[in-house]
Write a structure and sequence with these properties.
It contains 12 helices and 14 strands. Helix 5 links the parallel strand 7 and strand 8 (185-190). The chain is an alpha/beta fold. The longest helix has 27 residues, at 26-52. The protein has a 12-stranded mixed sheet with strand order 2-1-3-14-11-10-9-8-7-4-5-6, sandwiched between helices.
């Protein structure tokens, strides 16, 4: 059903007005899915055109972690421009190794970013436990790692995630050292607030392979940029990983020369995806569903694609990585395959129990957004028909 934009808007206004506890009937669900398909198809068509305009675009595909020239028929896990040797090894592990293995310790943060998945809940994040680490959903003490390494296959890489490790960074040195001695690649995310040279050197000495700064958390503040430069003295790979928002792009353009001269290796342009916590901060943006999974402002990846082209044309010295919803989709397919899942198995999906239909009204009301192809509604779905 290639529903028209006018019919889509009328139906979504109705869906948005329904009480939260009232589910859609089967035919109403069919209408909703047709609308999401129309929006995503239009978004994909425009992005394919933008990608064709990026010179030297490369695709990471199975068997070619270094990247190959991108064409539309390549089964790309992700896309990037720039020197292959600067593409983050943590991303290769995530996409082609045995997945993104998260290690969690810290339940606190020293910032409150509007794009954070835990926005508004940062004081309510349950603790992992004193002296404990969450690995693979199970609690361990540091001294348990030798047993874990002896009984299970070692991951190609791990990532220290949630929330801000530098609020208690001294606790990380020992476990980083153990994973390093086991030959496991390790990367860490930070907003960089308060990071000192002593701490960054200690991370490098312990064996941290890669440090990623979320510059969007501080509007690329000068102290964090200095910390990023310092980190490169001690840690092999240092880069940026930030959700692409209008606010971040503005500050990036203001400080572009400073950032590109910092000696970093990469910039992971994360497509912003939303859940029930951070969605209210972006209502009013044109939204789309990627394969009925992540919900994102359309502008987020559009900003990434403009940076890819700019980086390629200006020959930036760093890798610029299109860490899109499609990349996350591929990440989960790879992880399930490595775990022995059945063909097609993936945990990629929506983060909403109830679809927020009201979030899609702006894109359906936007006169500059068009569907690629439209058809009249079939019998049973037209105005005046009973649609259950």
């Amino acid at each position: 059903m290639k529903i028209s934009k006018k019919d889509a808007l009328n139906w979504f206004r109705f869906f948005a007005s329904l009480p939260e506890e009232e589910p859609l009937g089967c035919r109403q669900q069919e209408i909703a899915l047709a609308v999401f398909a129309q929006i995503e198809t239009a978004v994909d068509a425009r992005r394919a055109e933008l990608l064709r305009a990026v010179p030297g675009l490369k695709a990471v595909v199975p068997g070619h972690p270094e990247g190959i020239p991108w064409t539309e028929d390549v089964p790309a896990c992700t896309l990037f421009v720039g020197p292959e040797n600067r593409f983050p090894a943590g991303c290769r592990s995530c996409l082609l190794g045995n997945g993104l293995s998260a290690v969690r310790k810290t339940n606190r943060c020293n910032a409150a970013c509007p794009f954070c998945y835990d926005y508004g809940l940062l004081d309510c994040i349950p603790p992992i436990g004193e002296g404990m680490w969450e690995i693979g959903g199970t609690r361990y003490r540091e001294e348990d790692l030798p047993l874990l390494f002896s009984l299970q296959s070692r991951p190609t890489g791990i990532a220290y995630v949630y929330l801000e490790p530098f609020t208690e960074i001294e606790k990380y040195y020992g476990i980083i050292r153990r994973f390093h001695l086991a030959g496991v690649h390790q990367h860490m995310y930070t907003n960089g607030i308060g990071a000192t040279e002593e701490q960054l050197k200690a991370l490098g000495d312990a064996g941290l392979d890669e440090l990623r700064f979320n510059l969007g958390a501080t509007n690329a503040s000068d102290p964090v940029l200095r910390a990023m430069e310092t980190a490169k003295k001690y840690i092999p790979q240092v880069g940026i990983e930030t959700p692409m928002t209008r606010e971040f792009i503005r500050v990036f353009r203001e400080k572009k020369a400073r950032i590109l001269s910092a000696g970093i290796d990469f910039m992971n342009c994360a497509e912003l995806h939303l859940n029930g916590n951070n969605l209210p901060n972006y209502l009013g943006e044109n939204m789309y569903f990627c394969r009925l999974g992540y919900l994102s402002p359309i502008v987020s990846r559009d900003l990434t694609l403009s940076l890819l082209r700019e980086a390629a044309e200006e020959k930036w010295p760093i890798v610029v990585h299109d860490c899109s919803n499609h990349t996350k989709f591929a990440r989960d397919l790879n992880l399930r395959a490595k775990e022995g899942g059945w063909f097609g198995q993936s945990s990629y999906g929506s983060e909403f129990e109830r679809i927020p239909y009201e979030a899609f009204l702006p894109v359906l009301e936007d006169p500059d957004f068009s569907f690629a192809e439209e058809e009249p509604l079939p019998p049973g779905f037209r105005p005046g028909d009973i649609v259950l």
